[in-house]
Design brief:
Largest sheet of chain A: 2 strands, antiparallel
CATH class of chain A: Mainly Alpha
Radius of gyration of chain B: 32 Å
CATH architecture of the largest domain in chain B: Orthogonal Bundle
CATH architecture of chain A: Orthogonal Bundle
Distance between the termini of chain A: 62 Å
Structural class of chain A: mainly alpha
Strand order of the largest sheet of chain A: 1-2
Shape of chain A: globular
Strand content of chain A: under 5%
Number of helices of chain B: 16
Number of domains of chain B: 3
Helix content of chain A: over 70%
Shape of chain B: flat
Order of helices and strands of chain B: HEHEHHHEEHEEHHHHHHHHHH
Largest sheet of chain B: 4 strands, mixed
Order of helices and strands of chain A: HHEEHHHHHHHHH
Structural class of chain B: mainly alpha
Oligomer: heterodimer
CATH superfamily of chain A: MetI-like
CATH superfamily of the largest domain in chain B: MetI-like
Strand order of the largest sheet of chain B: 2-3-1-4
Radius of gyration of chain A: 25 Å
Largest interface: A-B, 84 and 86 residues
Number of strands of chain B: 6
CATH topology of chain A: MetI-like fold
Number of strands of chain A: 2
CATH class of the largest domain in chain B: Mainly Alpha
Number of helices of chain A: 11
Chain lengths: ~290, ~425
């Protein structure tokens, strides 16, 4: 029996150190990718950003001027899809968590919602085109685009609401019901207010998602070049992500419009970043508040 | 006494209305709960109604026809044969089962080579009659004519082009949906292109994603985890078109220089961008799975003298294997359906992929690039919807298999 325990221990420790350092370096590498992408776009885009860039119409085959109509278009689409998806999604979430009984129906709806969430965005584009644009004769319009985007975020809103409601302690429900409140009174006056911060956090993230989607609006509302602001919900609009795609790949003069592309990418990323940071701040703020209570 | 009775009846009525309201609200909530199911059904109906229309339709637009002499034994032509004939790859009738003569191609513009301009007439009013004469006089002719120029007592024979079947659609190796005279609707190169790009992406993303998940879930101190989590969320939040733009201006030139290629828009560029985009999905889901390993199992392993690393790869990883599988499958699903980034960096050449350093074209990119130009209700339009159906089915299979994996896991635990 002459086992060198020290040696075995050392080799085990070396192996562990090697593995852990590999993981550490790879993880930091992945974080590095994010900063690489962000840094690259900020570095190139910041030179272009100015007040004029944000508030002017595009000019000269989109090689000069600003991106105002694209910004307005994206905001319009975000607002439109929110008006459609948030009320319905929150109601569906309430039904799933508070009302639906365990069983086939609930399971079925869950599977369907998951499937809807997994459908690629281009398929939403096809669907939106064939239902809203062609069948219902909305044409290429803000209405068709907003509805398509609304359907796209619906599963996210439902899931967020469900998660938020799940986090509310059951003692709230039991307490309210014991005081003689009805189910809807309990849900609307006790459960929803305490779940509200979490719901809002999730919704802000879905706004970020909507503002970046391109494929669903390709054939439902996006205009290639339209230097005016929309007047009604039946108008076409420019949108930031589609604008970026167009000037990056098929503009009349790609080298001259490259700075505009960097600027557009920066504005787009800024919107997503702001939404993410806002959601994080809210999460932290409300998280603390709940704890101190 | 009467007052009391009145109060009671009002009370009853209030109770009744309140109950009615409750029911109403419950019904309303239930309806919105069922909305997603309704939408999925609608998507299936609309997608397949447009997409399945392609099967059974001829591969030529109805506005034009192919015509042969009445002595020609050829009864029908496949889309591939028509293309090869008009590309001059097939020059003799016997190559496609006819007589031993060369094929004489004829288009409407060639008419004045056979008849004089006086015969055609100043206002082209005699074109149908002249066509009749030309087709009847040349036995080896194959004429491609507009359908409205065919005269009533036509002496030639109209050759129907073969109808598009699921076999030729899925197995065809050529995708030229706007080719004249016959569109080539073979989606095999697109399907293979999609799978190639996605699988290479997962091969890159899985080891990286797992390492990060292990680091975040098991190794990293709390402080670093609190920074890493939002970083991963942000990575997931960046719009795909921004990834595509980044790929176009950074990755594509990089690949071009690294491999000394003529064009940097290759399958590999697409895979790299897709790998970055699939990372957040893989990391979050596999980290969740690892986090679910019971503490007792880990502590038992450590108590037996195993190092932390041994515990991770002999206890934590095997325990969360199904979660990791689900993560990989969902990552593939994300990659298969991704449109804009792939459209911008893979070069979009619809050829059978032979290597990852070639341009390829994926299904979503094809839809995004071509739907804008396809006239509504036409053959091309239907073909693109059929591609959408294929994409839908692939993602459906992926979702259901993930569902069954996570369900099996739940079953095991109880």
């Amino acid at each position: 029996m002459n086992i060198d325990h020290d040696k075995i221990f050392r080799s085990k420790r070396n192996k562990q150190n090697f593995a852990f350092w590999t993981f550490r370096i790879l993880s930091f590498g992945i974080a590095g990718i994010l900063f690489w992408i962000l840094g690259f776009i900020v570095m190139h885009g910041i030179k272009v950003i100015s007040w004029d860039f944000i508030t002017k119409m595009p000019e000269d085959g989109m090689t000069k001027g600003g991106i105002m109509p694209a910004i307005v278009g994206t905001l319009t689409l975000v607002a439109g899809s929110i008006i459609f998806a948030f009320p319905l999604g929150i109601m569906a979430g309430i039904y799933m968590n508070e009302y639906a009984r365990e069983g086939f129906l609930k399971r079925f709806i869950q599977v369907m919602t998951n499937n809807l969430a997994g459908i690629p965005s281009i398929v939403f584009g096809l669907f939106g085109m064939s239902l809203f644009v062609n069948k219902l004769h909305f044409g290429d319009s803000i209405l068709a685009g907003s509805l398509t985007l609304g359907i796209l975020v619906l599963p996210i809103v439902i899931r967020t609401t469900e998660e938020a409601l799940k986090a509310v302690d059951d003692s709230f429900r039991i307490g309210s019901l014991a005081l003689g409140a009805s189910k809807w009174q309990t849900t609307s006056r006790v459960i929803l207010p305490s779940a509200f911060p979490n719901i809002i956090t999730g919704l802000i993230l879905s706004i970020g998602r909507v503002s970046g989607e391109t494929a669903p609006i390709l054939f439902t509302c996006a205009a290639y070049f339209l230097p005016k602001l929309p007047h009604s919900i039946m108008d076409q609009v420019m949108a930031l992500p589609y604008h970026l795609y167009v000037i990056a790949t098929s503009g009349t003069n790609i080298t001259e419009s490259r700075p505009i592309a960097y600027g557009t990418a920066l504005v787009l990323i800024a919107i997503v970043l702001i939404m993410n940071i806002l959601a994080n701040i809210l999460r932290r703020y409300f998280g603390k508040k709940v704890k101190t209570n | 006494m009467q007052k009391l009775f009145l109060q009671k009846s009002i009370c009853n009525r209030v109770k009744f209305f309140r109950k009615l309201l409750e029911r109403l609200i419950e019904g309303l909530l239930m309806l919105s709960g069922g909305l997603t199911s309704l939408i999925v059904v609608l998507i299936v109906v609309f997608l397949f109604r447009e997409g399945l229309g392609i099967f059974g339709s001829p591969s030529m637009e109805t506005s034009s026809v192919l015509v042969v002499n009445k002595s020609n034994p050829i009864k029908s032509l496949t889309a591939a044969q028509i293309k090869n004939i008009f590309d001059q790859n097939i020059t003799h009738w016997n190559e496609i089962g006819g007589k031993k003569d060369t094929i004489i191609l004829f288009r409407i513009d060639d008419l004045t080579n056979y008849v004089s301009e006086e015969e055609v007439g100043a206002n082209l009013e005699n074109v149908p009659a002249c066509l009749n004469k030309v087709v009847d006089s040349i036995p080896n002719i194959l004429a491609f004519l507009p359908a409205n120029k065919i005269p009533k007592n036509f002496k030639g024979v109209i050759v129907p082009s073969e109808k598009i079947s699921p076999g030729t659609f899925l197995g065809g190796k050529e995708w030229f949906p706007t080719a004249e005279p016959a569109a080539q609707m073979g989606v095999l190169p697109l399907i293979l292109g999609t799978l190639l790009v996605s699988f290479v992406a997962i091969l890159i993303a899985l080891p990286l994603g797992l390492s990060t998940a292990i680091y975040m879930g098991e190794i990293a101190p709390d402080g670093i985890r609190r920074i890493m989590k939002p970083v991963i969320e942000l990575l997931a939040g960046i719009p795909s078109v921004v990834y595509g733009f980044f790929g176009l201006v950074v990755i594509v030139p990089l690949i071009k220089n690294a491999f000394g290629l003529d064009v940097g828009e290759t399958a590999l560029s697409g895979s790299i961008i897709l790998a970055i985009m699939a990372l957040p999905t893989i990391i979050t889901i596999s980290e969740d799975a690892m986090r679910n390993t019971p503490r007792a199992m880990k502590e038992a392993s450590l108590a037996l003298g195993a190092t932390k690393w041994q515990t991770i790869y002999k206890v934590v990883i095997p325990y969360s294997a199904s979660g990791i599988t689900a993560a990989a499958i969902l990552g593939i699903g994300r990659a298969v359906g991704e449109t804009m980034a792939v459209l911008m960096v893979t070069g979009n050449a619809s050829v059978m992929p032979h290597s990852i350093l070639q341009p390829v074209r994926t299904i979503p990119a094809t839809i995004a690039a071509e739907l804008g130009e396809a006239p509504q209700g036409g053959l091309h339009y239907q073909a693109l919807f059929a591609l959408g159906c294929i994409l839908f089915l692939i993602t459906l299979i992926i979702n259901l298999s993930v569902e069954s994996i996570s369900k099996r896991k739940k079953g095991e635990r109880h």
